[in-house]
């Protein structure tokens, strides 16, 4: 476990990667990708996440930077560890945590961090309630995250200028110190709504200067959310019924549900999709439970119908 830096180390430049021997056998991009198995992570990101094309491209760009850094070392070119602290901005349910997990895997496989684990926290995990409480809390979280990625959700809550007795600034100062001095073994990702993150950075120029990569996560379209629902159902071993015998299909009912729900406040993209499917499964379970003497088939037990979805209050609220 790394010791956290003292104040005297705050001005120490980040260590350089040791240059490889010029006599080392030349490497190619393909060789590094194969040896590190990074392509597997990129493929999982591409196939497992619907949409998010700009985000996926940025992740590939960061992977390319680290691969080329490996080739430079192989050729005897000294290379300082690049700063890879990031900001993920976007609305809830747009895949920020999932991408952070994949990023941690990529960083580990390419040798940027030792472990490749993700530690996800919020303000409450870092900021104390009284004098002397914040520093140990923040340092404990940082020790857990060393060798991997620290993901701070709703990071703007660390800074509350309206409260003179708030201790968030102390946590920020400790974070800044570690982000600078140990950036070769810890990547910090700050996440939250874009407008609030912009305000946070304008109020904390030291933090802004340490964030090298800003990734904006767009909201999903209705069709993308339908694809996400299909993926979730497959993972749960459920399916939408196809509306045979003139009945409405569950998929059509869910498509209309999305159109209505996306217009309402507090819509959370994929998170709202998961919540809707969980409630539909609850209704399906109640429906089947009421048929106490029926030997339900595997298809019955794994099929959601239109009624399971239309019982949502979203439809009732939309009724004239």
Description:
This protein has 320 residues and is an alpha/beta fold. It is built from 15 helices and 9 strands. A 5-stranded parallel β-sheet has the order 4-5-6-3-7, sandwiched between helices. Strands 1-2 form a two-stranded antiparallel sheet. It has a two-stranded parallel ribbon with strand order 8-9. Strand 5, helix 7 and strand 6 form a beta-alpha-beta unit. Helix 10 packs across helix 12. The longest helix is centred in the first third of the chain and has 22 residues. The chain is globular. About 5% of the residues have low confidence.
Write the topology of this structure.
Elements: E1 16-17, H1 29-36, H2 38-48, H3 53-74, E2 79-80, E3 86-90, H4 96-109, E4 118-121, H5 123-126, H6 134-145, E5 149-153, H7 168-181, E6 187-192, H8 194-203, H9 205-210, E7 213-217, H10 222-236, E8 239-240, H11 250-261, H12 270-289, H13 298-301, E9 303-304, H14 306-310, H15 313-318
Parallel strand pairs: 3-6, 3-7, 4-5, 5-6, 8-9
Antiparallel strand pairs: 1-2
Helix pairs in contact: 2-3, 2-4, 6-7, 10-11, 10-12
């Amino acid at each position: 476990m790394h010791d956290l830096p003292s104040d005297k180390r705050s001005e120490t430049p980040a260590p350089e990667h040791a240059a490889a021997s010029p006599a080392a056998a030349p490497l190619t991009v393909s060789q590094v990708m194969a040896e590190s198995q990074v392509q597997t992570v990129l493929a999982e990101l591409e196939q497992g996440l619907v949409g998010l094309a700009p985000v996926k491209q940025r992740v590939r760009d960061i992977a390319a930077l680290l691969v080329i850094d490996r080739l430079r070392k192989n050729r005897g070119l000294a290379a300082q560890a690049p700063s890879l602290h990031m900001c993920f901005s976007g609305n809830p349910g747009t895949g920020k945590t999932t991408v952070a997990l994949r990023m941690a895997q990529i960083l580990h496989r390419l040798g940027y961090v030792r472990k490749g684990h993700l530690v996800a926290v919020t303000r409450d995990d870092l900021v104390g309630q009284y004098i002397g409480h914040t520093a140990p809390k923040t340092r404990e979280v940082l020790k857990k995250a060393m060798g991997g990625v620290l993901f701070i959700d709703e990071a703007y809550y660390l800074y509350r200028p309206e409260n003179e007795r708030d201790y968030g600034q102390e946590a920020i100062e400790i974070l800044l110190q570690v982000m600078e001095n140990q950036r070769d073994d810890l990547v910090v990702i700050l996440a939250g709504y874009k407008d609030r993150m912009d305000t946070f950075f304008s109020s904390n120029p030291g933090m802004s200067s340490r964030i090298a990569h800003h990734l904006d996560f767009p909201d999903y379209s209705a069709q993308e959310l339908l694809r996400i629902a299909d993926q979730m159902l497959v993972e749960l071993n459920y399916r939408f019924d196809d509306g045979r015998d003139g009945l409405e299909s569950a998929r059509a009912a869910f498509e209309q549900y999305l159109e209505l729900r996306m217009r309402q406040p507090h819509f959370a993209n994929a998170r709202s999709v998961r919540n809707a499917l969980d409630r539909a499964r609850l209704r399906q379970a109640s429906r089947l439970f009421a048929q106490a003497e029926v030997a339900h088939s595997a298809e019955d037990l794994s099929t959601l119908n239109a009624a399971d979805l239309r019982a949502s209050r979203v439809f009732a609220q939309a009724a004239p």
